[in-house]
Amino acid sequence: IRFHRDTWRTGKTSMKPSMSLGTSISISIIVVVLVVYALVVVYGFRQGGKGGLIAALFASPFAGVAITPALLAFVLGYLAWVHERVWKPWQGRYYAFDDHQIRVVEARGRLWFASKDVHAVLGMQPRAALLAQFVASERRRDDAIGDALSNAGLVRLLGRSTDAQVLRFLSWAERDVRGPWQKKRDREIVQNPDA
Question: 54-61: which pairs have CB atoms within 8 A and are 24 or more residues apart?
C-alpha cells in the first residue's frame, strides 16, 4: 500500500491509499477466497444436518492457504506505511546534538533548524515576543518542521548567552551542520555553474 501526498490541493498527506497493482491483487484474492468460502459453507448448511460444519471444516485449510500470502502482503504493506508515517517528519532531516535529534531543512539557500528542537535540547522556553521580532532571514515557518531558525536566527537567539551548553550548541551547529553543508554547496556550484 502506498499512501499519496495530495500537495497540489491541500498540502496535507492523504489518508487514502494509492493502490498499487500488487495491493489490488491482494485485496481481490482475499475477497474472492472469502466469498467462495462463505458460499461453500452456506451450501453445506442448506443441505441440512451437519453439512455446513463439515463444509467449513474441509474448506478452512484451503481458504487459509489461499488467503495467507495475500493477507500477509497487505498487512506488511500497511505496517510499512505506518512506520514511514511515524518517522516521516524526521526522515533525512535531522542531526544529533548530545544524542538529541535536531531537525534541519534546506530552503531559500539556507539551513533552517527546528525552533522546537533547539529550545527542547537547550531546556529553554520559547519566547514568542522575542521570536516575533526576527526578520525573514532569521525565522520562517516550514511545512516539514514548523517554526524554523536560520544560522543568523540561532546567533540572534543564543549569541549573548554565556551558558556552556548553549555555546557548545552554537559551535556544533556551525562546525557539524552548516560548515559541511556550505562546503558541499560550494562544490556543487563549482561543478555546475549554470545550475
Answer: none
Q: By the 8 A CB rule, do 111 and 177 touch?
A: yes
Provide the grid cell at 73.
Answer: 502482503
Global model pTM greater than 0.85: no
End-to-end CA distance of the chain: 36
Sort residue 164 into left (φ over 0), alpha (ψ -120 to 50) or beta: alpha
Mean pLDDT of the chain: 80
4, pLDDT greater than 80: no
Do 131 and 116 contact (CB within 8 A), yes or no? Answer: no
Identify whether the C-beta of residue 106 lies closer than 8 Å to the C-beta of residue 113: no
Beta bridge partners of 149: 113, 139
Integer angstrom CA distances of residue 100 from 44, 83, 91, 94, 147: 62, 20, 15, 10, 18
Residues 157, 125 contacting (CB under 8 angstroms): no
pLDDT, tens digit, 9 for 90 and up, residues 125-146: 888 888 889 999 999 998 878 8
Cβ neighbours, 10 Å, residue 123: 9
Q: Is the dihedral of CA 162, 131, 119, 154 positive or negative?
A: negative
Please, are residues 7 and 22 in contact by the beta-carbon 8 Å criterion?
no
- Continuous segment of H or E residues that includes residue 87: helix 51-87
User: Are 132 and 146 a contacting pair, CB within 8 Å?
Assistant: no
